[in-house]
Amino acid sequence: MNFLNVSKVHHTYFSKEAATEALQDINLSINKGEFVSFIGPSGCGKTTLLSIIAGLFQPTLGTVKIEGQDVFENDDLSIGYMLQQDYLFPWKTIEENITLGLKLLKKENHSIASKLLKDVGLPPVEKKYPRELSGGMRQRVALARTLAVNPKILLLDEPFSALDYQSKLKLEDLVSEMLKEYNKTAILVTHDLGEAIAMSDRIFLFSPRPGRLYKTFEVPEEIRNLTPFEARGHSSYSSLFQLIWKELESLEQ
Ligand SMILES: Nc1ncnc2c1ncn2[C@@H]1O[C@H](COP(=O)(O)OP(=O)(O)O)[C@@H](O)[C@H]1O
Ligand SMILES: [Mg+2]
């Protein structure tokens, strides 16, 4: 059985003035432990689909199931969401931010937070406030918070796009390494084709609005086994980049 199943999903946003058709007949499935990316022109419905998978709202038509359970009907499914903005609470300490989703004793919170900080490569900044950290450090905290609730699946919506290039490359490696270590299933939305290739097992390319699944690409084995940073230097990376780039260009015409 597939881990995640998206079946016949359509979505239209309704407002007083207009109806915006965002997604049309999306069918896809993802295996446990797989890392996939959604790419496609801006406005093609990537964030909409991710929100539907997260169970944030119900699609106009169709279903999303994780391990056979409907994500919208089941409140117990734990889903980790990481966004472009870190959404850390400025008035809470790093420790409080990381353990936000946990209902534990103070003492346990402390040991979980300090272990996760170490795991994401940060020094002991538990007692600091978000404003005292750089953008890259805050995204590491956001990753720690996402992992703290031990989610079944991680949904990453352009989590690196606000970072400088060097921090972005470092964070890609970190996220990739941690998800492998914890054997997590993940979906990354990105407008950076290189990032999608370097990080994913498979890439789903969506057509312009209303978004439809246009093509799926398998990332070759020899890149999948490398870190994202190493993958960017592999010859198979460049050829896949060229191939998908042409498809993207043809879609934008
Ligand atoms: N809450 C909303 N109400 C109305 N239209 C929306 C809403 N959210 C997104 N849209 C529209 O739906 C389409 C898909 O948006 P989105 O999922 O954010 O695309 P992407 O993430 O691929 O850029 C866009 O045309 C966008 O303007
Ligand atoms: Mg988006």
From TrEMBL:
Signal peptide: none annotated. Keywords: ATP-binding, Nucleotide-binding, Transport. This is NitT/TauT family transport system ATP-binding protein. It comes from Ureibacillus xyleni. It holds the Pfam family ABC_tran. Residues 1-233 form the ABC transporter domain. InterPro entries: AAA+_ATPase, ABC_transporter-like_ATP-bd, ABC_transporter-like_CS, ABC_transporter_ATP-bind, P-loop_NTPase. It comes from the Bacteria. One of its GO terms (molecular function) is ATP binding. PANTHER family: ABC TRANSPORTER ATP-BINDING PROTEIN, TAURINE IMPORT ATP-BINDING PROTEIN-RELATED.
